[in-house]
Amino acid sequence: MAATPDVTDAETRLEDLVDTARRIRDAIESVIEGKSDVVRLTLTVLLAEGHLLIEDVPGVGKTMLAKALARSIDCPVKRVQFTPDLLPSDITGVSAYNQQSREFEFKPGPVFANIVVGDEINRASPKTQSALLECMEEHQVTVDGVTYRLESPFMVIATQNPIEMEGTYPLPEAQRDRFTARIAMGYPEAAAELEMLDVHGASQPLDKLDPVATTAQVHALISAVRAVYVSQPVKRYAVDLVAATRSSPDLRLGASPRATLHLVRCARAHAALSGRDYVIPDDLQDLAVPVLAHRLLPSMEAQGQRRHPEQVITELVRRVPVPDTR
Amino acid sequence: MKLPVAAGLSTAAVAITLYPLFDGGAWFWASMGAILVVTVVGVVAGRLGARPWVTPVAAPFALLVYLTAVFTHDLAWLGVVPTKDSLPLLAELVSTGFDDIQRYAAPVPANPGITLLTAGGVGLIALLVDLFAVRLRRAALAGLPLLALFTVPAAVITDPIGWPAFVIGAFGYVGLLVADGRERLSHWGRAVVVRRSRTLTGGGSPDTGRLALSGKRIGVTAIALSILLPALLPALSPDPLFGFGVGNGLGSGGGTIAIPDAIAKLSGQLSQQNNDTVLTYTSSDDQPRYMRIYALDLFDGTKFTPSGLRGRPEDRVSEGPLPPAPGLGPAVTVKRAETRISISEDIGRLTFLPLPYPAVQVEADGDWRADESTLTVFSTKDEAAGLAYRVVTGEPEPTTTQLDTALPQPEGEARYVSLPSGLDPRIAALAKRVTSGATTQYQRAVKLQNWFTHTGKFTYNIRASGSGRQALSHFLFDERSGYCEQFASAMAVMARMLNIPARVAIGYTGGTKIGDKWTVRVHDAHAWPELYFAGVGWLRFEPTPAGAAGQGTAEAPQYTLPVTPSAGPSAGPSSGPATGTDDSDTLGRPSRPNPRQIDRDLGAVPLAPAPGMPVIAKVGVGAAVVLLLALIPAAARLLSRSRRGRVLGRTAPPAGAVPARAATAGGDDRAGRRPPADAAWLELCDTLTDLGMPRRRDESPRALGRRITERYELDAESAASLARIVSAEERLRYARTPAAAGPGRADVRRVRRALAGNVSRWRRLGAVVAPMSTLLRIRAVGERALDLFDLLEGVRLRSGPGPAAGSVQADRSYEAPRETTLTGSRR
């Protein structure tokens, strides 16, 4: 009988979660038309306490998505435009000498926010990029030997242009691995683009966007996601999927154990967004490409055949059998 | 496995099938040694990188040395090297071997000659197999010499070869083919590998395991089919399953003895110059007795010949009393007598025991076996020369009445009255004329004998000649002169014409009494007819003239002498002095406890009714069996479906009860609700399989439900049922707590009906008659069995010559740089 309150509690929490998530989604979609998959994935990453890498050609609304998400949640948002001359201290903050107090005083950088939008992250030098890394992974900043905790929730939404090669430093594998998922915006459909013209032509819809959730609510959502049940077979399936990338002859570099962790975390959020308190293999299948693809390096053969890691992952998902309790 | 070794093993496997031909195991080890010699030569030649022609040239020499060492060890130089003394001995052994093979019927004794021949032959086969498979790389062709070896037992033994022996041989050949395929593949070289080394499992050779595996599976399936199919078709299998070659107790079994022209031998003996003693005997009643050696039952128009003898191991005379005398009924008085016989040391080769008829018990040293129908006692390896043995006979002493009333019913054996067509028609007329006036078959027989001995004016002449088809007519109508052979044959033929079963017995007359012993000499060799009377059995008749003008010691039995009508029913023949008679009793056969007889009766059962069963019935029974077997999967499917239906039916509980139960069950204890959702899901999966709607491996229950609903356009109700089944299974597998309300029996039924509506009628019928889900399960079991074979294969490979565990590591590290150079800037 003791289990009953827990069950009901979990159910109400789940209902709250679905409700709040829908509100955020609606808010974002009022700005970004016809990209519900992308929006859903963005929310999934947020609830999985991950970081998102948006990769696409300029002008498809990458920054708009990041801003819309940030705006719809009532929390501090900072935006950093990455340029080749950007220094690590420009991100983390600096210790400046205070003439009055005659002491060094820490001036927090843009990472001290709940949501950090890093625009064109691959334009910064590796040194600066790696400064962001520490923040992303450890949720803390160390300046002059003093460590400062970052906000919670903390999410980095980075964008990068794939085709603009001049003056860019491609993100190293290690850094890509820290992003929970990578998504491509893609061009909008004709109808969505038409509507966009109507909406964006007259005014800036972002201005009209009001926060629909508080930081506390997001915290609650995150803790609800953490409670989502992952059964043993599903865990095994996640491990199988990731292991398959390591043995695939099409891939030079497979996914890391951190990828497995991210995959399962995202699957929890994905399940919760669907109103389920347990993860099913379908969650993992839906997330395999965005969560795994950017961490992989195709083999020379696959490159020669112009097979992208996305395709390889899709094939792997089709090959790895779904766990059966029998 | 190395190819030469595989070739040797396959030869050895097929050589095992020779075993029913031999008595004793000496041949086996000698043959294995010969195979080993050839194989070793092949392996060594391969190791030294010798040219392909070296082995076929060197191996015969090695074989010769081996045979010399084994068979003519004493005369060889150093016991091994053939010399001019040892070679002729070897040749002599070979010729004795050939003679012995001609003379003996299987199973032959493994004497040196035969063993030498066998070992040499098997060695040559091994040589040929090696030549084809290893030197010429035509492993399939190597099947020809193996087949030749295999046909030897198949041709010699009338019974089919036992299936285990066949399986061993077939596996040998399949093993050779597999080894050849593997070797061939390994010569293709290594594939150029571009992928990462950690995915590489093998060393320097391509992985032939998979190919070999499929080859093995095909081989095993083919062998299994070749065993099972004939066994299931009753018309094609004379041998039931689970018999192993000779003497399996079910089949007729036993070797057959060929008797080389018995009649010719007889005349030779009679005309011999020196009249040596063949045997001496004493009998308990001191009466002379004809010593019968064997009986000839087939008449081909010119002469009588014996049909094959059957001597199963359980027919050994040492194992107990002989089979009962055929046709002897319980009403007839039987006179028991004991005869002690000793055969002369000097007689030629004799593999039969001369015995008075009918013998009840024989005590003789050696492997002597009794033929059931003729009571001939013979051996395939022991000789009678010098043998002393004891015989108990039970001679029938029928009364005239008994004989008169006896009907000549030939116990279903038509061979005793069958005559070839084209016989002189005058003979039949003559037989009728001679026996006119006789009212019973017995009287006809007596008249016939009387005609030969008295009224027919025949004379005895040992020089009588004439053979061929006309010889009989010549003897009866023109010459009326001859010796025992002609008399016996003629009377037997005429008796058959009168429809009295008859055969010709060969042996010796009772001989003459010298001192207190009866002595039988070469000139006492004799032939006489035996006629059959139901209830009495086979009775000896004596048409050959006796006395000084005839065959001296021949003597007509009392009952064959014509009776004067006034004499009435006589008390029987020679109601001899009661002093010497052992005991004379009517044998109460049914009451006599004789387990062997019961055995024999049982053994006879499959033989007797077999011809009575019409072919149609056999085919019908076979078809019915096949049909029943074919329906097993359908029955299994129905069974599992109804079982699942019961499980589902059990859980259509009131809605309120279930959540409470689930709640109390709590998180981890899922067993309580497990079966129903599971049953519904399993039933769904099986239905899909049966209807040919395959599941994908990467499909979760939810995805499957979605796909099925869309693909087959299920109506709302069925879709909802499907969703219930699917989500129950999903929760069961992945959720903390299983679904509150599981699917019911109606859901499963509805989905099944909706799905079945999407396929053709034939498919629906197939789903019922041959459900794929069950067939796949059966196949899975079969594959597990095959995996066992693979396991064995693995064991053999691991124990074979290969790098030790430590050197594997070294191999890998050696391989690594090579791969790096192959792929260049991989990393």
From TrEMBL, chain A:
Recorded hits in InterPro entries, A to Z, give: AAA+_ATPase, ATPase_AAA-3, CbbQ/NirQ/NorQ/GpvN, ChlI/MoxR_AAA_lid, P-loop_NTPase
Q: Locate the AAA+ ATPase domain: which residues?
A: 48-189
Q: Entry's SUPFAM superfamilies? A: P-loop containing nucleoside triphosphate hydrolases
Pfam family example for this protein?
Answer: AAA_3
Query: At the top level of its lineage, which domain of life is listed?
Result: Bacteria
Q: PANTHER family in the record, alphabetically?
A: METHANOL DEHYDROGENASE REGULATOR, MOXR FAMILY PROTEIN
**What is this protein's name?**
AAA+ ATPase domain-containing protein
Species name for this entry? Answer: Microbispora corallina
UniProtKB/TrEMBL annotation, chain B:
Q: Does the keyword Lipid metabolism apply?
A: no
Keyword Cytoplasm, does the record have it? no
Q: Where is the composition biased (Low complexity)?
A: 558-581, 650-666
Q: What Pfam family is a match, any one? A: Transglut_core
Region ranges (Disordered): 307-330, 558-605, 650-675, 800-827
Residues annotated as transmembrane: 25-45, 57-80, 113-132, 139-157, 163-180, 218-236, 615-636
InterPro entries in the cross-refs:
Bact_TGase-like, Papain-like_cys_pep_sf, TgpA_N, Transglutaminase-like
Give the UniProt keywords, A-Z.
Membrane, Transmembrane, Transmembrane helix
Give every Transglutaminase-like domain span: 476-545
Q: What is this protein called?
A: Transglutaminase
